[in-house]
Structure formats: structure tokens, C-alpha cells
Amino acid sequence: MSTVFDINSLARENVRKLVPYMSARRLGGHGDIWLNANEYPIAPNFQLTENTLNRYPECQPATVIQRYADYADLQPEQILVSRGADESIELLIRVFCEPGRDAVLFCPPTYGMYSVSAETFGIEQKKIPAGIDWQPDIAAIKNNLDRVKLIYICSPNNPTGNLIDPAALHQILELTRNRAIVAIDEAYIEFCPQHATTHATTRWLQDYPHLVILRTLSKAFALAGLRCGFTLASADIIALMLKVITPYPLATPIADIAAQALTETGIQTMRNRVKEIVSNRAYLQQALSKLALVENVFPSETNYILVKFINAEFVFKTLWEQGIILRDQSKQPGLENCLRITIGSRNECEQLVSAISALSSQTQQIKETENP
Ligand SMILES: Cc1ncc(COP(=O)(O)O)c(C=O)c1O
């Protein structure tokens, strides 16, 4: 009998070694309260209006592109629509990075897909730890630009929740002029509307031809299940990305719903949703900061908060068993004992507070019995 051939031996070496991104769905769990994927807690209601499923869809559905261009106050040539912002993260690597020669740079703790996408394509990664208050360490970035073709900056940053200082963004854009692409990942930007108005990075596109902005309908638009994201950049960068994107990245029903979400009414609904989440966030931050098990509740400009606990593993596991699913961030550099908590409905926030509050009083009682 011939020996069994190991098909893995045919796979590219970096794919064999690759640890895939552990999305909230892959991590599983049995919950009633899902606070681990920064989703909106209630499903929005849409009806399909486009039934021509016998035909292939447009590669870049014109209505969706036009409506996003209006929303972002840009020209349609400056917009690309893709299967979530995640696809765009990967397209940028495919367009700009040569394996074995170029590198990408990002600043942990940050969103995990920059690393996974670079790893998949065998691109060197330069990880420059974030500095004070999780702002980019400009000096360290400056000293590590050799071979760097692409920089990902997440603002507001996932999982820490902070915006990146516009002055730091300008410094990075100046350092990289004529040598690298800077992709600012603004998946959560709608949750800080004031900032988005005063410092709108979209307006910087005219001064920085190497700037790329990533957006999504997954967060404030409450459409994570739709898988629809946007890239905003110069017409030249969009044209390059269109060379490598799949022929039909957006299914007809997705384009149909995305177009509806981007009408004036859709945008107003999104803005109302943001107000509700921001108010729930303030409630949750206040309530959690009073609890004995909580060491620190970090400020947030997003639909989640990062919380440092006395013992995060204990809180995470106990709540998991109770069907309240949070996201453990304690393995990320500098985030020991930190959990990331999505802002759910007010009722979900209240249930979470009472669950952690009950744990806090139990812990207090144990301590008192041990040290009367
Ligand atoms: C910072 C950041 N960028 C991008 C994404 C991916 O967005 P999409 O759902 O559009 O692929 C996420 C998803 O959680 C995210 O947190």
C-alpha cells in the first residue's frame, strides 16, 4: 500500500504556518447576549427590490458608488465597494506589496486582519507598538520605514477605542510621501460624528495621493451580515484596486440593500442609531467603573469599550457560561486583563452590569471570609 500523501505539503509554506483570524463567529459560544463582534444588537428591516438574479451583477454597482460618494462628499471615481472592509485590507496588499521585498507596518494592539492578510501573501510585517495612550510612536515608525510599502492605521482603533491624533496622522502622511501607502481604517468613524466633521480625513485626499480610507456598512449602518465595505482614495489607486478585485465582488441582493442603506433616510437612521449607542456607552462606562472587579474603563469613540478587570479570565469565563459573550483581548500586547465589550441595547447593557456586579459582590464576600 502506498503511503498516504500529505496534501499540506503542497500548500505554500506561509499558509501552512498561518494562524487564521479568529473571528467572533469562529470562536463560537452559546449566548443570549452577544457583545463580542461590535455588531448592532437589532436587525434592520430591508426588502429586496432587485430580482434579476439570472444576470451577473455590476462589478461596481453605480447607485451604491454614487450614494457613497455623496455621503462622503467625494467623486464616484474615488470610491471602491468590496466584500467588507476586510477585502479591501487584502486588496491593498495584492496591489502594493511584493512578497520577499516589501513590508507592511502597523501598530499593535490593533485589528487582527492586517497581520493575517500580510501573512497570507508572505509579506514582511513591521509591528511598531503603539505609544502613550495608544497613539502611534512616530519616531519608531520613522526609523522602521525601510521596505515599507503600506501602513495600516486604525482610527478609532480596535480594540482600544481611541481616535488617532490628526497631527500624528499628518506626520505619518508626510514621512511616507512618494514612498508608501497609508491606509486609515475608519470602520468605526461614524461613532464620533464631531471628529468626522472637524477632521474629515476625506478632505485630505486632495493633498495626499498616497492616502487610503477604509469604511464599512458593518458597524453604524448595522449591516455586518451584508458584507459591504468601501475604499476611498485617489482615482489612480481605485483603478489599481479594480485590476485585482474579483469580477463580481457584490451579489445583486447586497448591492440592492446597500443602496437602500445609503439613501437620506438610511443615513438618518444610522445617525439616530449612533446617538442611541453613544448614550448606552456612557451608561455602561459609568456603571462598570463603580464595580469592584473593574480596574479601568478606557474612554471610547466607538461602539465598544475596553475594560481592564482584576481578573479578566474569571469574568470572561463566568459570563460565557451565563450566555454573555465578550471578547478577550488579554493576549494583545499591553492589554493584560482586558476585555472588549460591544455596546448592545440598553437592556443588554443592564444585564451585563448586573452579571458583573453579582460577580463583584461574590468576590468581595470570598475576600471577607478569607480575611475577616
Ligand atoms: C477596525 C476594523 N476594520 C475592518 C473591519 C472589517 O469590516 P468589514 O465587516 O467591513 O469587513 C473590522 C471588523 O470588525 C474592524 O474592526
From TrEMBL:
Keywords: Amino-acid biosynthesis, Aminotransferase, Histidine biosynthesis, Pyridoxal phosphate, Transferase. The keyword Cytoplasm does not apply. The keyword Membrane does not apply. Its cofactor is pyridoxal 5'-phosphate. Pfam families: Aminotran_1_2. One of its GO terms (molecular function) is histidinol-phosphate transaminase activity. Gene3D superfamilies: Aspartate Aminotransferase, domain 1 (3.90.1150.10), Type I PLP-dependent aspartate aminotransferase-like (Major domain) (3.40.640.10). GO terms for biological process: L-histidine biosynthetic process. It catalyses: L-histidinol phosphate + 2-oxoglutarate = 3-(imidazol-4-yl)-2-oxopropyl phosphate + L-glutamate. InterPro entries: Aminotrans_II_pyridoxalP_BS, Aminotransferase_I/II_large, HisP_aminotrans, PyrdxlP-dep_Trfase, PyrdxlP-dep_Trfase_major, PyrdxlP-dep_Trfase_small. Pathway: Amino-acid biosynthesis; L-histidine biosynthesis; L-histidine from 5-phospho-alpha-D-ribose 1-diphosphate: step 7/9. The modification N6-(pyridoxal phosphate)lysine is found at K219. SUPFAM superfamilies: PLP-dependent transferases. Belongs to the class-II pyridoxal-phosphate-dependent aminotransferase family. Histidinol-phosphate aminotransferase subfamily. This is Histidinol-phosphate aminotransferase. It comes from Xenorhabdus japonica.
